[in-house]
Design brief:
Elements (H helix, E strand, L loop, with lengths): L1 E5 L1 H8 L7 E5 L3 H6 L3 E2 L6 E3 L6 E4 L1 E5 L7 E5 L5 H6 L9 E3 L4 E2 L4 H7 L1 E2 L11 H13 L2 E2 L1 H12 L8 H12 L4 H10 L2 H5 L14 H9 L4 H11 L3 H12 L1 H5 L6 H10 L6 H11 L8 H12 L3 H7 L6 H16 L1
Parallel strand pairs: 2-5, 10-11
Antiparallel strand pairs: 1-2, 1-8, 3-4, 4-5, 6-7, 8-9
Length: 348
């Protein structure tokens, strides 16, 4: 029985990056042996175990054989005679197909270290074509590391798209990879790769612009992507990708208020208050702050500083005191609006 560190931990260590999670492959063992040694079985589709002390993941070396369409169409084989090279061969790109032995020796049968040094994303074997999610992973790694895609890998990805294998992508997996890619250092690189292999036109035809994505939360980055779109396009895109509700909500809020936000430079205090109310700024100030972050992609067309001043002034009005002094309950909304408009007028 031999244990090797594998995958991203080996890659990141060679790049001098902090290692967050370590995964291990165990060669020459059976599930029964692992349990006897105190490892806890947790794998559903293949034998994965948690270390009794560190709780890190240890997977038995395995091979995979295509048995159907999509990312779930695989038959998994594990046994003590599966070698480390067999296990590494099923991985997506060479920079993820390296291992480190317990004595520190690097095992690199597919040239991952060389590709890492040259900044290349290259598929390990033709088995890459069996899982369409790998195209999204390559695009995400391009966004993370700024690496280029090897010509033969790009040709294979284009062939997968043309052959219809990507038609079987599951929305939840697409969103998982797409969201990670959006949060990488160079998210625009993800779109360049998806454009080059023609998957973007199939999967994300609405997303033609992708500027100002860096330095923000996931909901803000996605809403900036959707900023130029019509509301119906945003709805369709969110449904296709099964976008989480908080991300969808901000994208739609920005889309519905885009015209008013762009008019904010010249808007009257009354119009600014209406915008604040439509955006639910007083009840949800955090989300309103995110909306302004989205709108900053259009500065100087959108005057976010003026909007911030208007909000700060209106929010400072003591609505409770105004309500307490109102002659009748029916007068309360009008009187609060009047005080807020007065406050905005003074602030501007």
């Amino acid at each position: 029985m031999k244990v090797y560190a594998v995958g991203g931990a080996v890659r990141d260590e060679l790049l001098g990056l902090p290692v967050k999670d370590r995964d291990y492959v165990v060669v020459g063992a059976t599930p029964e042996e692992m349990e006897r040694l105190g490892y806890k079985p947790v794998g559903k589709d293949f034998p994965v175990f948690l270390h009794p002390n560190t709780h890190e993941e240890y997977a038995l070396a395995r091979t995979e054989r295509k048995s159907g369409r999509g990312y779930k169409g695989f038959a998994v084989h594990t046994s003590p005679d599966v070698t480390l090279e067999d296990d590494l061969r099923r991985r997506d790109v060479t920079i993820n197909a390296m291992a480190k032995a317990e004595d520190g020796a690097l095992i690199d049968p597919y040239g991952g270290k060389r590709d890492l040094e040259q900044g290349i994303l290259r598929h390990v074997s033709e088995a890459f074509a069996e899982d369409p999610v790998r195209i999204l992973r390559v695009a995400r790694f391009a966004a993370r590391f700024g690496f280029r895609v090897a010509p033969e890998t790009m040709a294979l990805m284009q062939k997968m798209v043309e052959g219809g294998e990507t038609d079987y992508l599951v929305p939840e997996r697409v969103w998982q990879e797409f969201a990670k890619g959006l949060m990488e250092r160079e998210p625009e690189r993800m779109f360049e790769v998806l454009d080059a292999c023609s998957l973007r036109r199939k999967l994300l035809p609405e997303l033609r612009e992708r500027t100002g994505l860096a330095g923000a939360t996931l909901p803000v980055r996605f809403a900036r992507l959707c900023w130029p779109l019509k509301e119906a396009e945003v709805e369709v895109l969110c449904e296709r990708l099964k976008v989480p509700s908080d991300v969808r909500e901000l994208a739609l809020l920005a889309c519905r208020n885009r015209v008013a936000l762009r008019a904010s430079r010249l808007a009257t205090p009354q119009a600014l208050l209406e915008l604040l109310k439509r955006a639910d700024a007083f009840r949800r100030p955090g989300r309103f702050a995110e909306l302004l972050e989205v709108a900053r992609r259009d500065v100087p067309l959108v005057d976010t500083t003026r909007l911030e001043r208007a909000y700060t002034a209106a929010a400072a009005v003591d609505a409770g005191a105004v309500a307490a002094a109102a002659p009748t309950p029916a007068d309360i909304p009008r009187l609060i609006d009047e005080r807020r408009i007065e406050a905005i007028t003074r602030a501007l």
